[in-house]
Amino acid sequence: MNDVHQGHTDGAERAARRDRAVRAALEQGLLGPESPIAALLDVTGIRESAAALRAAFDAVTAPGTPVLHAFAVKANPMVAVVRLLREEGIGAEVASPGELALARAAGVRPERTVFDAPAKTPAELREALALGIAVNVDNPQELARIDGLMRSADSRSPVGIRVNPQIGAGSIAALSTATATSKFGVALRDEGAREWVVRAFAERPWLTRLHAHTGSQGIPPELLARGVAETYTLAEEINGRLGRRQIDTLDIGGGLGVAFDADATSPTYAQYARLLKETVPGLFDGRYGLVTEFGRSLLAKQGTVVARVEYTKSAGGRPIAVTHAGVQVAPRTVYAPRSWPLRVAAYDAKGRPKSGAAVVQDVAGPACFAGDLLAEGCALPLLEQGDHVAALDTGAYYFTAHYAYNSLARPGIYGFVPDGSGGVAFATVRQPQTMAEIVAESGGAHAAALTTLHAPGRH
Ligand SMILES: *Cc1c(COP(=O)(O)O)cnc(C)c1O
Prior knowledge:
single chain, alpha/beta, TIM Barrel, Lyase, Ornithine Decarboxylase, Chain A, domain 1, eight-stranded parallel barrel, 12 helices, about 30% helix, about 20% strand, binds pyridoxal-5'-phosphate
């Protein structure tokens, strides 16, 4: 099937599922006056997205090529999500002890887990090597640490080196990892760096992988593919110079961008996999195993934040809807709206898509600072008190990366599927945060800590 067409069909079906879920969430009381914000995850969409990823690489790799798709857990660190993806054949890429713990709680096996992080401690490295988890080394000091650990332990972990091909930035500087001065990996074009990498492999037969992650949202697919090509070329050079196929696996990272301006998936995994095959044909001929680390592209379009419009008002002629979704669930959009614009959909009090002439208005959040706007000057049917707004495509890096400003509670997260008889069934993925939890996380157990602390000798 033509996958541009496929992307559009998927998008329309996903939007229809979302509309039904918003309405059902209200009918079933997940949302209401006393629970004015909830996050919804489209389980059907997550399964389809995982299946599309597997199919895309199956279509371009030689039969029998080992391919591990490791979900970048930071994109949606919910145990039930990682577990669902596990069931769909997807492993986990973790970048902190917390993410590793989540992946283990989700039952992802060590052989299906990849540990990347820029600041791994000795204890974290020891644990990863003891478990047999794949580790990508970031820098020479870390490699020296692993040398010490490998001497004292007998690890099954595949170990690789992360390289930075330094091929340049995309449209969002903070997410571009392959710039000349990026903090990630070994900067390949720096003087002596390439030789250092070759020597590192020559001296360590247990180093068998190369890793590159060229960036996230805002990097065009062609630039991602060039990063992969540079990594492949280096692997070929190293194996050629060593006269053996020591590098047996390439980890090509994640980073495929998401279209935040439409329902359709674009680019699709199928398009990206074909682009990779055209750019780096040798990568797919079966000589190398592959690891991928997609995050945003797997989950973004499967998540929606729905919030109640508490009040509407107007200031300086601009209509403003004051809602319960703002910086706590969408910090990137609020602080960097030009890089991270979100689409907002309007629903009425019953959760039906709202119709009516579009009016330019601001959709504000609940936090106490003026910049807390989910969308500024967006054209929507005029919102009224008791309506709802939905922040679309927020399944990755939004409500799962809660920002605790104003001690606003983390919203509940609910997965949904069609219930088979025209309705929608929900399951709790994460409970809404309670006031008791907020107090506890803010040191409630230490309430008297400062009033009872005195300098020695003073009473
Ligand atoms: C964040 C990250 C990813 C995932 O990036 P996405 O843009 O979410 O696909 C993959 N690999 C590494 C090393 C990362 O840091």
